[in-house]
Amino acid sequence: MRSPQRLNVPIHLDRGLAEPLQAQLAGQLKSAILAGRLAPRARMPSTRTLASVLGISRGVALAAYERLLADGCVEGRHGAGTYVAGAEPAPPGGSPGGSLGGSLDGPSGGPSGGPSGGPSGGSLDGPSGGPSDDPSGGSPGDRSGDGRPPSGDLIDLRRERPSTQAFPLAAWRAAWRRAGHHAPPADEPPAGGLPELRAVIAAHLRETRGLVLDRHEILVAAGYGEALELLLRGWGYGQGYGQGRGQGHGRGHGRRPVIALEDPAPPRLRAAYARLGTVLPLPADRAGARPDLIPRGCDVVAVLPERGNPLGTRMPLQRRRALAAWARGSGGLVIEPAFDGLFDAGVNPLPSVLALANGDPADLAGAGRAGRGRAEVGPAGAEAGAGREGAGVPGAGTAGMAGCGTVGMVGSFCEVLTPALRLAFAVVPRGWAGPQEDGAGPGEPSFTCQLAVADLLASGAVTRRADRLAALYAAKRALVRQALAAYPGVRLLGADTGISATLLLPDGIEAGAVVAELLERRVAVAGLGAFHQRRGGAHVLGNGLVLYYGHLDTVTLRRALRVLTRTLGTHRPSHHPSHHPGPRPSPGPGAWPEPDGRRTVA
């Protein structure tokens, strides 16, 4: 059964306008089609999906599709849904991996000749790229095929790992088999990755994120840390950086950069950045990282706009604009993930910081009306004009640097396939100072590995796998909410998207003690304090637990949640009902720490 097609481009409908909703929807979808953010022959979301995501009736969505059909923008296929009309445009030439919007015939001879990719159970089977360096904390698959640990074994919720349930084993084996039919080249693979892999990654980003990378290119690396190094190398940071093509883009002159990383963040992600530069915390609140608190003198800002890890925050459009303005005004570099990590087809997309920095049409006129003139960047309404000098965005309007900054992306397929696949990529401006021809750059994946991943992408197996995981994770999120959302005295964060949740504990329950007792009961969780760079700082919200549960089957997850709730019950400040009816309540449901240590309630 085919999974519903998610909405992958930002849509903003304004009921306050005289223009009917169906006309607004049709106009924005048409703009996305004409701009190439919805590729020719791409499947469109169903009217039911549009109605659910945008909060409109199916009649409005149907009327919009009828307009698009009349304009020749879409075409209906009996029993198969609605598709973007037209042939795939011919790719522009002149750059390796540069046909970033066109179709691709992968190693298997094109999508029509690829594997069916139907889900099948079992553990991963295929060449392993070696140990993982996934900064999210991933590790190779579970010891059992369905993710269930043997009885009495440790249930580990400390690391983010994808589920191995319903892994597309047939497509995986077929891709590696076809890749193995190619004779190995006499020389090393091209710097930056095979052109066919780079092009199909760009096509995948257009399909899943609505990104048209006509001014960007893909550089492939052997791991997430290596992809980060490529990005910083191109900007001129680090020993020997900025010596290749396009060196005029950078401003680092070979020194180690000062990097502001969203705080809290996964410890492994912080370690990956710390290997390349000096890391400073960028405080986050309920709306994600705060651009008005970017440290002065900072060269690079690393954020998680789509889903903050571990708090599950999502950055609003105004803050994304402020980050794009900081990059343009200060001449700095903003880095965001290429994969949104939401695993939820019901979320209305927002423009990426990269799209906003490049003036992408994704920054819709309707969305502009919603936040015109000012960008809200503080939890209590502190504002900074996106692009206005000195308006709360550090470095905005810096003399001589306007227009020199940029935004890059780093991604991998650890979240969808397996962390054992040591392949990642960076999205960089075209003509960037990439890998050095003399081999001084970061390592690259093997020739066979690149061919296999290109095959998996071209056949649609990766997209189908992400859709299947979204359905699996939705059921697990429901279990977590059922067990913990109404638990007295605690607050659950991030359980509506993704594969992790954070449980804030009341002051009377100490997180370290709960972690220790859970470990004695064979359940391992992480303390929230470890995700902050400066433990005990004024902005730190550290008394909590972080649970990564995506890799567990439902039976094991229920067992872990049962142990967790029972353990919390033993740590209440008083167990005698005449003394206290329960644990002291946590701050209100909207309570977040201010940088000066105060808490605010939404």
Note the beta-strand portion: 5-15%
Q: Identify low-pLDDT runs.
A: 88-134, 136-151, 240-248, 361-403, 574-602
The largest sheet, given as strand count, sense and whether it forms a barrel, is:
8 strands, mixed
CATH superfamily of the domain at 21-84: Winged helix-like DNA-binding domain superfamily/Winged helix DNA-binding domain
Under the CATH scheme, the architecture of the domain at 21-84 is Orthogonal Bundle
Q: Calculate the mean pLDDT score and round it.
A: 76
Distance between the termini: 42 Å
Structural commentary:
It is a single chain. The chain is α/β, with parallel strands linked by helices. It has a domain of 64 residues: Arc Repressor Mutant, subunit A, CATH 1.10.10. The chain has 14 helices and 20 strands. It has an eight-stranded mixed sheet, with helices on both faces. Strands 14-15-18-17 form a four-stranded antiparallel sheet, with helices on one face. The protein has a two-stranded antiparallel ribbon with strand order 1-2. Strand 19 and strand 20 form a beta hairpin. It is globular. The C terminus is likely disordered.
